[in-house]
Amino acid sequence: MMNEPINKNLCHQFSVLLSYPVSGLQNTAIMCRDSLARISPDAACQLHEFIDFVDTADRAQIEEIYTSTFDLQPVCHPYVGYQLCGENQKRAMFLMKMQQIYRHYDYTPGNELPDHLCEILRFISRTNAPDCCQELIDDGVLPALEKIIQAIENDDHPYKRLLMTLQCFLSESRTENGALL
Asked: What is the pLDDT at residue 110?
């Protein structure tokens, strides 16, 4: 059986790794890999390439690759609602539903829109609502991850590898334990 605090901690670490790059990114990536190694060796192996990238690139390069990937390519925007619905009324409804969920569980989101992948991962890491979290993962996060991963053409792209690591972790957690948290 998987350890609940590790899963919550891993979701938080992934939210940091997939946010706009800040100092300490390499340490977070290493902690994430070490935690993953205990519960999902396949996912941990995939994270090595991202760690190598963060280790060899300077901060400006990391920021440039992050921005060119997630901010300048609409097909890769890290917004779950956008990935599932496009930019239309359905996404607006999705955003409103996310706000309702956050309010219901007394979660105060950060500066991102409620459907941002990192915001959803932070919510999962901070709430004690396993059914709600699993539904968000199964019906939102995993399908959105699949679309973003497919949109990044370069298989060696560091953020594609990071997204694949998250996908592997969430998928393995689901199949091994029946629920992430």
From this structure: 92
